[in-house]
Please model this.
Amino acid sequence: MSHFSLPSLVANALGSNKGWTKQWAKPEPKANYDVIIVGAGGHGLAAAYYLAKEHNITNVAVLEKGWLGGGNTARNTTIIRSSYLRDESARLYDHALGLWEGLAQEINYNLMFSQRGAMALAHTVHDVQALKRRIYANRLNGIDGEWLSPQQAKAFCPPLNISTDARYPVLGAGLQRRGGVARHDGIAWGFARAASARGVHIIENCAVTGINRAPDGSVTGVETTRGTIGAKKIALSTAGNSSMLLDMAGIRTPIECFSLQALVSEPIEPIFPCVALSNSVHAYISQSDKGELVIGAGTEQYFSYSQRGPLHSVEHTVAAICEMFPIFTRLRMMRNWGGTVDVTPDRSPILGLTPVPGLYINAGWGTGGFKATPGAGHLLAFTIANNVPHDISAPFSLKRFQTGNLIDEAAAASVAH
Amino acid sequence: MLLIDCPYCKEMRPEVEFSHAGEAHIDRPADPSSLSDEEWESFLFLRSNRAGICFERWYHIHGCGRYFNAVRNNVSEKFILTYPAGQKRPSDAQIKGALS
Model:
């Protein structure tokens, strides 16, 4: 693996860019590993990287049924923020945001991480009250947040329509300046490269078809489309398939799957300087470095594993964008797609142990798992290495649905996001 | 957009007239006060969530205003059967018959 730097860039440019080496290895699966992580998305690869880096466990395989970073890592709208209401969520998401902040340097990979600010708009008195409450709660948890008047919001995001005769007038906005976006592929590729360099095996086109167990119930390995692979510890990080995988170990889950759609416009000159989210009008938007406006909203209403959704939802989302930013009314939309999201009853993730010894779960991130990528991987790696949940992720156990200690973020998250 | 056959209206209507209402055939506990925490968890939160054939409730909110059940393939998004609430869960043979 070659180190990326200005000298390496110049040297390779002078050599017609023929000197670049492969960024990660493609080994054949071994018969046994210390740890198997199922799912080579951002979360799974991050867990593999932190297992190697912080816990010195390098005999690790990351199994992926398709290609690396091809699931929800490739399908989300890359919004990063930690402005969650509950103390537990605030700690969890801010842990992730803290890791994002130094990550590009740490793994020597350009993640295009840009803290351009995530701004949630208020359109009703209730929005104003809820957003202010969230800002105050965030501040008590040491997370930055500030209230903007409509004029300040307009100054921060010039395309915003703040006229008082709008159907849903902007009454103000809650801004987290540390929020922003990153390159979705970059985080998967960066972690894959960093994990591979530390000896982790990334095995693509290897679908898990069963989980093998010893007579005492503990896991012994997995059956895959590329044969049996043994391991004493198995972690599932398979958003959109978590229930199916846990079913193989006889565990029923409090998860339901829905489609979530996103779309991008034709590329235009830089015009949109931040991330804007609106719960009431129901959409969120940012501009990628390529110039496309990246737009999304909530999930479809019905269960789905189809990774697609109906056009009327897209129309609804675009209508919301045109309402808030009339300047985009004549913009063409270029493509749209869907992903399958794991939704839990309290809209908070499940990260920790399972009733099966040696089996760990990272699931239920719903519509907002991308922002947590390094944090989820970091905490999952800790849990796998020590066989106990990390302090930060302990409240997010599978057990909470039995004890009733739910972490209700349904209303607090922006656009279920 | 899904086209949904309301078993009361006996008409194929667009999805926007309907509201999805979760998994079907989850019976309310007969004696709630005798339930253990595990049983409450199972009733309130644990769901099948399998890819493929699913059983679900729909509410014809902008139509007849009544609940009914449906069998649908959640990968192809195709409806297989719809039937009034309260009716027994269709057997595998019935689903197979409806598919052929």
Notes: The first strand of chain B starts at residue 3 and ends at 6.
